[in-house]
Every structure is written in C-alpha cells, then in structure tokens.
Amino acid sequence: MTFSHIHREEARHVGDPDDASISELTGVAPPCKQCGEEPGTDTDRNGDPICPDCPND
C-alpha cells in the first residue's frame, strides 16, 4: 500500500465540530421559543423555533 492509496481512502473534511451546534450534531430540534416543551420544528416571523401547536403571531 502506498501513500496515494491511503490518501484516497481518507474522508473529506466537512468542517470542525465547533462549527455546528449540539442540536445540529445530535439531530435534535431546539425547544419551542413560546412553550419550551415541544421541539421547535417550525419558525416564527423572527426566525425563532416554535412547535406546530403554538400560534405563529
């Protein structure tokens, strides 16, 4: 095995872990900004995470 074989099998550099938040790394949505109980999968007008049950005022 030569250096070119090893180099070819390396994974691409996709960024440092510090670039992503812990919720992005774990795949968990941040809590809802209004109720704080459900995962905030939608966003309100300000771009804050809200759950589908909370009104989007």
Task: Give a structural overview.
With 57 residues, the chain is an alpha+beta fold. The chain is built from two helices and two strands. The protein has helices at 3-8, 22-26, and strands spanning 42-43, 49-50. The protein has a two-stranded antiparallel sheet. The termini are far apart. The mean pLDDT is 76.
Provide a quick synopsis of the model.
This protein is an alpha+beta fold. It has helices at 3-8, 22-26; strands at residues 42-43, 49-50.
Strand content: 5-15%
Integer-rounded radius of gyration? 19 Å
User: What string, H for helix and E for strand, traces the elements in order?
Assistant: HHEE
User: What structural class results from the helix and strand content?
Assistant: alpha+beta
Protein name: Small CPxCG-related zinc finger protein
Region (Disordered): 1-57
Organism: Halorubrum laminariae
Biased composition (Basic and acidic residues): 1-16
Task: Looking at this protein, list some descriptive labels.
single chain; 57 residues; alpha+beta; two-stranded antiparallel sheet; 2 strands; rod-shaped
